[in-house]
Amino acid sequence: MPANSVLRTLIADIIVDVDDAIRDVVLTIHWRDGQHSELRVRKPQSGEHGSATAEDALDVIRSMAGRWSDEHIAATLNRMGFPTGQGKTWTAHRVRSVRYVRGIDAYRSADKNGEGLTQVEVAKALGVSSYLVRRLVSTGVLPAVQVVPRAPYQIRAADLTSEPVRAAIARKGRPLRDVDADTLPMFSYT
User: Fold this and answer.
1) What angle do CA 90, 108, 70 make, to 5 degrees?
2) Which domain of life does the protein's organism represent (predicted)?
3) How far apart are CA 151 and CA 120, in angstroms?
4) Helix (H) or strand (E) segment spanning residue 126
């Protein structure tokens, strides 16, 4: 016998009520033997559903939104391992949709003023590779900040003209570490 047939033979009726004071849906089940059972379920907020974006992902979106494009935000969320509310990977369109629903401001490239540069923009400005810029950042020669871990670096344009950066660019192709005067070369140049 199917399960729904069994339930129909056991249940006389179900009365549904809403307790707005504590936001509960109250189900009163009247069994055929005269017994009654009560089941309470939390009533969802208006617009709330089971596919909501995790709060951690929303924090990343909020912190990056004004400074980074939706593409950068999506890539960062994917690197951090945050799925969408439906368990999918992030795309620029999905980030844009969440921003719109949550009222989070978008990236404004016109407001950037060239103060905070990306790694690619710095490489282009200095005429070097992105790899060298990444090395300069990792060794501390070029100061950079990340809004959240694994987000793209933001580099101030003013830091590009500092003496340590200029010196590192000048010795392009050689290591960034300081060479001690007492160190002997591995190969002698004749």
Assistant:
1) 5
2) Bacteria
3) 14
4) helix 119-126
